[in-house]
Amino acid sequence: MKKAGTLLMTLCLCLTLCGCTGGTGAAEEKLAGRALVFEGGSCAILTEQNEVIVMADISAEGGLFDGMCTGDQISVTHGPIRETYPAQTDIYTLQILGRGSSEAIPSGSLEQLESMGWILSETFGEP
Q1: What is the pLDDT of residues 78-104, one digit of tens each?
Q2: For residue 111, what are the contacts with CB-CB under 8 A and spacing of at least 6?
């Protein structure tokens, strides 16, 4: 009987912990910054702390980056940030808060990205 009680308590604890994360372990968070659109179709966000995070569109509809330009002020809902260089994350939603240009990106950030082979494009979808 004692073993059954221990097993029941363990099961309840596991269910409680899974309920805290929705069972997926992927919490959604919000992040704001400037859009970076690269040649080849990759997009990233430059956070207010000057961190570059490459974004992957995993929305159900797709096309989150359509119409986005380098330098646009954006807000995203994202999953966990993967500790790669540069960092990467999955994007669920994206909102363009204001239009901008590549001149809104600090020159030091641009030089560092270009030294790693990340060449900016003005608009998403440009060759």
Answers
A1: 999 999 988 999 999 999 999 999 898
A2: none
Strand partners, 76: 31, 94
Q: Please tell me what DSSP assigns to residue 60.
A: S
Q: What is the DSSP string of 79-113?
A: -PPB-SSSEEEEEEEEEEEE---GGGS-HHHHHHH
By CB neighbour count within 10 A (0-12 exposed, 13-18 middle, 19+ buried), where does 89 fall?
buried
pLDDT averaged over every residue in the chain? 82
| 8 A C-beta contact, residue 45 and residue 95 | no
The pLDDT tens digits for 97-127 are 999 998 989 888 888 888 989 999 888 865 5
Read off the amino acid at residue 18.
C
Q: Cα separations (Å) of 64 from 56, 84, 106?
A: 9, 22, 24
DSSP state of 58: -
Residue of 10, 47, 29, 42 whose CA lies nearest to 93: 29
Contact 95, 74 (CB under 8 A): yes
